[in-house]
Amino acid sequence: MSSGESFISEARSAAVGWAGLGVYVGEVVGGVGVVRVAGELDAATAGLLDDGLSLASVMAGDRLVVDVSRLSFMDVAGVRVMAAAHERRVAAGSCGLVVRGASGIVRRVLEVTGLTVLLDDREPIGQAWGAAVDGPRSELESARRRAGLSVADLYVAYFALGGTADLSELVAYLSGDAGALDRHQRDIAVHAVNERLGDVGCTDQFLTYASA
Q1: Is 100 helix (H, G, I), strand (E, B) or coil?
Q2: Which candidate, 166, 150, 161, 189, places its Cα nearest to that of 209?
Q3: Rg of the chain (C-alpha set)
Q4: Are 60 and 9 in contact (CB under 8 A)?
Q5: Buried b (16+ CB within 10 A) or exposed e, 182-195
Q6: Which of 59, 101, 112, 151 sits at a 20 to 30 Å CA gap from 169?
Q7: What pTM was estimated for this model as a whole?
């Protein structure tokens, strides 16, 4: 590993969590992308990893490392997502992706499904995991969790209300990048969360609107 691979660029990164899975998407100095996964990866959460890998695909760099060292469980749904992302990258002319930090059941699933070709036994790229997975949460992100909304559900509701930002911009805002959404787009996302808070009887936890 080159010395340049040990530092994560803060310029473009996002962290999202849903139903026991945390996914962090960052960019390593030197053009190597990294996606870190923590928790349990199964049919219920594989879509979140797919979103993370899709986000990583638009970042600069020809190489992508998926760090699964904090993944406690993975089934075939997770394998399918990684294999499909690898195939998409190769078809687009890149180097595909490699998986680092696989052990226990995670490594066993990759072996049983015949995807050991993705395994890279070098050490995962260094990063402080606590900050990476949890990220500097915004007020909106905390409210989203209280409302029981997945990131995908929030984006669908936000889009239905007229939101025009893309998913990566919403994820960046949820992760603490206050400049990712302007005041109007932030208020649309707030309204989507407030509607769900009202549905679950938490009207006392409504967020205020920037335009109020």
Answers
A1: strand
A2: 189
A3: 18
A4: no
A5: eeebbbbbbbbbbe
A6: 101
A7: 0.55
Q: Alpha-carbon distance 168 to 68, whole Å?
A: 22
- In angstroms, what CA-CA distances link 193 with 82, 161, 200? 30, 11, 11
| Residue type at 93 in one-letter notation | G
The CATH superfamily assigned to 3-133 is: STAS domain (3.30.750.24)
User: For residue range 166-194, what is the model confidence (pLDDT) as tens digits?
Assistant: 877 887 787 677 888 999 999 999 999 99
C-alpha 172/C-alpha 56 separation (Å) is 13
Please spell the DSSP secondary structure of 115-169, one letter per residue: -GGGB--SPPPP--HHHHHH-S--HHHHHHHHHT--HHHHHHHHHHTT--S-HHH
- Ranges of beta strands (E only) in 19-104 are 21-28, 32-41, 63-74, 97-100
Sign of CA dihedral 139, 142, 148, 151: positive
Instruction: Read off the pLDDT band of 31 (50, 70, 90).
Output: low
Domain locations in the chain as residue ranges: 3-133, 136-205
Bridge partners of residue 63, in order along the sequence = 32
Tell me how far apart the alpha carbons of residues 44 and 19 are, in angstroms, rounded to a whole number: 8
Q: Measured in whole angstroms, how far is the alpha carbon of residue 80 from the centre of its chain? A: 17
